[in-house]
Design a protein that fits this description.
Blueprint lengths: L22 H15 L6 E5 L6 H14 L3 E6 L7 H15 L4 H16 L30 H18 L4 E6 L6 H17 L3 E7 L3 H8 L3 H4 E5 L5 H14 L6 H11 L3 H14 L7 H24 L4 H15 L12 E2 H8 L7 H9 L3 E2 L5 E4 L4 H8 L1
Parallel strand pairs: 1-4, 1-5, 2-3, 3-4
Antiparallel strand pairs: 6-8, 7-8
Organism: Nocardioides marmorisolisilvae
Keywords: ATP-binding, Heme, Iron, Metal-binding, Nucleotide-binding
Protein name: ATP-binding protein
């Protein structure tokens, strides 16, 4: 079929042509926006799931929903080596600009607070030319969001930004991707600020997305975070939605799939959105004509797997050191040896089993495990067990030999 008309989009965070299976989350978020705008109490939102399930895509879709309602929005991606101050300042700067508040003096006052919050990261005595500028032309405020205590400063900052939004009957939404990578102090401050904002009834909401252990990260910081956020687990698509993700874009291009082809594609992709797009793109390019057959899928499978091995699995595998790769492979092997009654829905394995595969004491493997946790290649959903953050990663490792 014509590769120019290929509708599939296997890209990191790239919206697929058919956002299948996420109607429930989009509808629920519309209600949240309406309630907050009307001064009703509502919790901030946290999306969790493995890599490749479409968290970033959904995060962007929720942001678009907020923009359509006239909200001010900003987005940032957390990084383990970066403080929250700079990226959050940039996100809130954009959100305030989107609000379109008619009183320039009030807007400038809040922008001054954002600038003060951002520049407080600089060490005392830093020369003016070396102080980071968030692109805000007004002077930094004095005595507001500049104490140096991130928790105090963030509460003051969001209070001022929320007040500006309330003036025009709108809201502010901050979207944070890779939220599990925030530092401990920043997580604590963010939870405290969300708590304060919800109590004051200001129209501000935080929407975070991260790996499955993100709720545990938040809970370890503030015990009340379990009541502070609405948690939504984003998982692979059901068979019905996986089929729609393939067939709806094809129908727009006057193409179709045979039932056997859809059977083969669901077996190969497991319903994971990123895999669906990757397979869909290759299958489209190799299929000579419509409808796509199971034979076409069989021909396309090696190429699709090769692309995933390089772009999805391989790029992550290369980040690991030789010792860490040995640990990853042992995880994959340990998963195969699990008894049926010890298998859970995330494919986790006991750390003791990994140590047994390697013939080492669990304590001696702590450095490798901790490094992999920090790199986001594995996570611990419960004490004594670990799992891959990437679906099908164990299979990839075993096939490497």
């Amino acid at each position: 079929m014509d590769p120019i008309r290929n509708p599939y989009a296997p890209g990191a965070g790239q919206r697929p042509p058919e956002l299948a299976g996420r109607d429930e989350q989009l509808a629920a978020f519309d209600i949240v926006l309406e309630r907050i705008a009307k001064g009703r109490p509502e919790r901030s939102l946290v999306l969790t799931g493995l890599r490749g399930v479409g968290k970033t895509v959904l995060l962007n879709a929720l942001r678009s929903a907020a923009v359509r309602r006239g909200w001010g929005t900003g987005k940032l991606e957390a990084r383990p080596d970066q403080s929250l101050r700079r990226p959050l300042s940039s996100a809130l700067h954009q959100a305030v600009r989107e609000l379109g508040h008619p009183e320039s003096d009030q807007v400038d006052g809040v922008l001054g607070v954002i600038k003060a919050f951002a520049q407080r990261e600089s060490a005392p005595g830093t020369k003016l030319r070396d102080v980071w500028n968030p692109g805000i032309e007004v002077a930094a405020a004095k005595g507001r969001a500049d104490s140096g205590d991130i928790e105090i400063d963030l509460v003051e900052l969001l209070t001022d930004v929320g007040g500006l939004a309330a003036d025009v009957g709108k809201g502010i939404a901050v979207f944070i991707d890779e939220m599990q990578d925030l530092g401990p102090d920043d997580v604590s401050a963010l939870c405290a600020a969300c708590h304060e904002i919800s109590q004051s009834g200001l129209p501000v909401i935080v929407v975070g997305a991260g790996l499955p252990h993100l709720p545990a990260v938040l809970s370890a910081s503030k015990s009340y975070s379990e009541r502070l956020f609405r948690y939504q687990r984003i998982d692979r698509l059901s068979r019905e939605w996986a089929d729609q993700a393939l067939t709806a874009p094809a129908l727009e291009e006057d193409a179709a799939y045979e039932a056997a082809a859809l059977d083969a594609l669901y077996l190969a992709t497991g319903g994971y959105p990123y895999f669906i797009q990757a397979y869909g793109k290759v299958v489209w390019d190799v299929a000579p004509s419509s409808p796509v057959t199971a034979a076409d899928v069989a021909v396309a499978a090696p190429e699709a797997e090769a692309e995933l091995a390089v772009g999805f699995f391989g790029s992550r595998y290369e980040r690991a050191t030789p010792g860490e790769r040995e640990y990853l492979r042992a995880m994959a092997d340990a998963a195969v040896e699990l008894h049926d009654d010890d298998v859970d829905d995330v494919g986790s394995v006991p750390t003791a089993d990994v140590a047994a595969v390697l013939g080492k004491k669990p304590q001696s493997l702590s450095p490798a495990r901790d490094a992999l946790l920090k790199k986001g290649l594995i996570y611990s959903g419960e004490r004594g067990r670990i799992a891959f953050t990437v679906p099908h990663f164990g299979r990839y490792l075993r096939e490497r030999g």
